[in-house]
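Please go through the protein record below and explain what the tokens say about the fold. Record follows.
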Amino acid sequence: MSRPDSWQATAFNQSTDSSNQIHSDEVAQAYGFKGGLVPGVTVSSYLIHPAVIAWGSDWLSCGSAHVVVGKPLYDGYEFSVDLTDVTADSYRATLTDQQDTQCATAYLRLNTNQPEPPTMRGDPILERGQDIPDATREEMEILRDKGMSALRTRWSAANNMATYLEDSSKMPEIHRFNGDGYANAAFLLGLTNWVLAGNAYMNPWIHLQTESQNYVIVKNDTELAVECDIEDLFSKKGHEFVDLNVAVYVANTGQPAMTARLRAIYKLREVSD
């Protein structure tokens, strides 16, 4: 294994047509942003990228990351990821954009002593097109108290998170589909968003941070089951926040693939005219 190193690239918004319109210019600008936000999970993948390059499959099978996205990153912006406190199995990272704005930070390490993962419960599966409630505080409290449905999905090149760079040929070989085709962080962390959005209608909303632990490499064409529970709901500065615990499993075996704790703003404060 090599030691992780800093890197630079150009931000890519894969989600301009997402049902979460915070990634569209029109809606994001209505909330005071310069344009559509690059997804938080994509920003996270930029901070994780040095771990993938240096540690490869070891990272995918036992890496842990705490990523905090504090400021928006915009499509087409140049950015740098600078590393500090680099050791053989850990580092701290800061992502800074072309305007010298610090957008996100992370602490990553190889965690060979992984915590005991949860066991797949077999929660009811979200059905395509099923009615879901609006994400009001009352409805979120009901989901917290009564439980949530699980998501079934498949990792493949067809997913819009199959690349976190506009030029997919610049992805690490381990993530390219002409290479190993293993699932990347933008997709895996994106599962935390999709299972939440599958249970409650939110638009717009913002991914803020994740604490994640990998357990197994997710190979191409693997079907996954994603289960979740709401840990906490709270308000701050007019925004409504949710903390969500998520567990991802290989669907046909129940083998844990990743656990994550997501913090998101599920309802933004009203915009004044």
Summary: The CA atoms of residues 21 and 204 lie 5 Å apart. The mean pLDDT is 96.
